[in-house]
Structure formats: structure tokens, C-alpha cells
């Protein structure tokens, strides 16, 4: 077991998790050290990985302040820090923010790690990190929800679509969205709960990192024990997540070709997302990145995804959050 020695270690865990996930290859459909996605190049993603750091450190510092009784948990500002991380990501390279989904996960993890750092227990374990995330979400505010909306508007994402009025939330680009959230009194956790119906990253944060722990961490540890290669372990962890979960980034991207409305687009894209999961399971059954047969399947899957203009970005975000949890508790590359 390892334990962060201070706030800088928590920041470094977030940056390293993003960089390790980014660099692992071949991750079908996504950017890695040998592949770009149009203007979203490896170098720009790498810059974004590092640019997340200061906001993560600030989140850890505020979490530590909560643990020491110097700051109320409702004053921590999760939403504002997520916004800060996304803005910094976009500032340090010229293709727009590259790690929007991971920022949504890394900021609460960082704050939870800071919270645990200030606790009397000498151990930092996964249970403590998950409990901390849940506690901070329980104490989130309407201001956090407003900041999340601002962050999403600044993300430059073409995959947001338009929320139907009956979805239970205002559309991100609705001029009256802020007034609606204030009048309804929805905090960040409540926004995530509703968004969980159509967004995997929102569901992952709302459930305090359930899939990152159950699937991601377990697979990462098993793969390292069996193969010893971190690259292989990261790729196969990504495949494991993709094989078991519906990647809503894929579903949304495919469905938005038929309708601009969310969650309708997710429904339209489910069949394609299920096909992506099937191909990931097939590649994993062949050994994934650990065997020649698995690698052939990965390269074929990669070519197919790129030809379709699809990238499983949600599962890449969960791979990075799995890595961050591992780096905070036991992993050293």
C-alpha cells in the first residue's frame, strides 16, 4: 500500500492517471501514443493531462480543509473546481478541452483524497475514497450545479445534443438554465442522478465510482499480476470496462446522426454501443493487448471505429479514474 505524502502527490496521481490512460496503446477508437483523432492529437491530450493538475491540487487542499474543520463541505466548490480544470485544459492546448469526463471524476477523487489525508487513519483505501466522494456529493450545492453547466458550455463538445424539456433538467445551452436550477434547488448530486439516465460518467460519479472499482481496479490488478506490463494492463482494463458497460459517448455520437434530442439519441445509438461492447469482449477473450491474436482484433476494431467516426470516450474516462484510484492506494508504474 502507498499513501499520498501531501497535496502534490494527489495532484500528480490525477495527472499521471490521465497521461497513462492516454498513452496506452492500442486503445481502439481513442487517442494514444501512436494515434490522433483529427485535431485532438496525442500532444494536445498530453498537455490537457498536465493542465488538470492545479485544480486537482486545489480540490485536495479544500478536502484537507474540510477534514480539519477549517471549511464546510458545502463550501468546497466541486463544480467550480471542475470548471477550473476544464478551462485550464483548454487553455494549455489549441483543440479545446480534452479531458472533460475525467475532470468530472478527478476533482471529487482529489477532494476525497485530501479529506482522507486529514483523517487520523494511517491508511488510504478505496473504501475511504468512495465514502469521501459520496459525502462531498451529499453536501454539494446549487452553485456546484451551476458551475457544472458553465463547464459543459465551455467544453466545446459537439456531442451534447439538446435535452428534451421532459428530461428533468434544462438544456446546457438554454438561456434560462441557471434560473431553472436555482428555482428547483437542484444540487450537483441531483443533477448527476438525473443525467445518469443517459450519461455513463455522470452515473459513475453519482454511484461514487462503482464501475471504476468493481471492473477497472480489479482488472488492472489482475492484468498486472498476470502480465507485468502496465501498457497491457491499461488497454485490457479499458476493454473490460467497454465490454461490460454501455459507452454513452458512442451511443450519443451515433444517435445524434438521427436526432438532436437527448435522451432520444442514446436510445437510437444503443445498438451501435452494444456492438462496440461485443467487439471489445471478443478482443478480450483473445487476450487483448497480451497476445498476437488479441492485438490483431484490437487493430481491426480500431480501424472499424475510426471508419465509423466513433470513439468510446466514456470508458476511457473510467479507465483513467481506475488508474487514479490505483495510484492513490497501491500502484507505482
Level-2 CATH architecture: Orthogonal Bundle
Task: Give the CATH class.
Answer: Mainly Alpha
Strand proportion, as a percent range, falls in under 5%
Number of beta strands: 2
Largest sheet: 2 strands, parallel
Structural class, please? mainly alpha
What is the helical fraction, as a range of percent? Answer: 55-70%
Low-confidence stretches: none
The CATH fourth-level homologous superfamily: Triphosphoribosyl-dephospho-CoA protein
Give the strand order of the largest sheet, numbering strands 1, 2, ... along the chain. 1-2
- End-to-end CA span: 14 Å
Q: H/E order of the elements?
A: HHHHHHHEHHHHHHEHHH
Mean pLDDT: 95
**Per the principal axes of the C-alpha atoms, what is the gross shape?**
globular
Question: How many domains, as an integer?
Answer: 1
- Count the DSSP helices: 16
CATH topology call: Triphosphoribosyl-dephospho-CoA protein
Cα-atom Rg, whole angstroms? 19 Å
Describe this protein's structure.
Helix 1 runs antiparallel to helix 3 (53-67) and helix 5 packs across helix 6 (126-138). The chain is globular, with a radius of gyration of 19 Å. The longest helix is centred in the C-terminal third of the chain and has 22 residues, at 264-285. It has 333 residues and is mainly alpha-helical. It has a single domain, classed as Triphosphoribosyl-dephospho-CoA protein. The protein has helices at residues 7-23, 42-51, 53-67, 78-91, 100-117, 126-138, 142-154, 177-184, 188-195, 200-206, 210-227, 230-244, 248-255, 264-285, 292-308, 313-329; strands at 162-163, 261-262.
Amino acid at each position: 500500500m502507498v499513501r499520498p505524502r501531501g497535496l502534490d502527490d494527489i495532484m500528480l496521481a490525477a495527472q499521471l492517471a490521465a497521461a497513462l490512460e492516454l498513452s496506452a496503446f492500442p486503445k481502439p477508437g481513442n487517442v494514444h501514443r501512436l494515434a490522433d483523432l483529427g485535431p485532438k492529437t496525442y500532444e494536445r491530450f498530453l498537455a490537457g493531462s498536465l493542465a488538470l493538475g492545479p485544480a486537482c491540487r486545489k480540490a485536495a487542499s479544500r478536502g484537507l480543509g474540510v477534514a480539519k474543520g477549517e471549511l464546510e463541505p458545502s463550501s468546497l466548490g466541486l463544480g467550480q473546481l471542475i470548471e477550473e480544470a476544464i478551462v485550464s485544459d483548454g487553455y494549455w492546448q489549441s483543440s479545446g478541452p480534452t479531458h472533460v469526463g475525467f475532470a468530472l471524476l478527478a476533482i471529487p477523487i482529489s477532494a476525497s483524497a485530501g479529506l482522507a489525508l486529514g483523517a487520523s487513519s494511517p491508511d488510504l483505501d478505496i473504501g475511504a475514497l468512495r465514502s469521501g466522494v459520496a459525502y462531498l456529493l451529499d453536501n454539494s450545492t446549487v452553485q456546484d450545479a451551476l458551475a457544472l453547466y458553465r463547464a459543459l458550455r465551455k467544453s466545446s463538445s459537439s456531442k451534447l445534443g439538446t435535452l428534451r424539456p421532459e428530461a428533468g433538467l434544462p438544456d446546457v445551452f438554454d438561456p434560462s438554465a441557471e434560473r431553472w436550477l436555482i428555482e428547483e434547488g437542484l444540487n450537483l448530486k441531483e443533477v448527476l442522478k438525473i443525467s445518469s439516465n443517459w450519461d455513463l460518467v455522470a452515473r459513475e460519479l453519482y454511484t461514487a465510482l462503482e464501475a471504476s472499482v468493481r471492473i477497472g481496479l480489479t482488472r488492472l490488478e489482475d492484468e498486472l499480476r498476470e502480465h507485468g506490463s502496465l501498457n497491457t494492463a491499461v488497454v485490457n482494463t479499458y476493454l473490460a470496462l467497454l465490454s461490460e458497460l454501455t459507452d454513452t459517448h458512442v451511443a450519443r455520437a451515433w444517435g445524434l446522426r438521427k436526432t438532436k434530442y437527448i435522451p432520444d439519441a442514446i436510445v437510437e445509438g444503443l445498438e451501435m454501443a452494444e456492438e462496440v461492447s461485443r467487439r471489445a469482449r471478443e478482443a478480450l477473450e483473445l487476450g487483448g493487448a497480451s497476445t498476437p491474436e488479441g492485438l490483431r482484433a484490437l487493430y481491426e476494431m480500431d480501424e472499424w471505429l475510426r471508419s465509423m467516426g466513433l470513439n468510446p470516450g466514456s470508458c476511457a474516462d473510467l479507465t483513467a479514474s481506475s488508474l487514479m484510484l490505483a495510484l492513490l492506494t497501491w500502484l507505482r508504474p
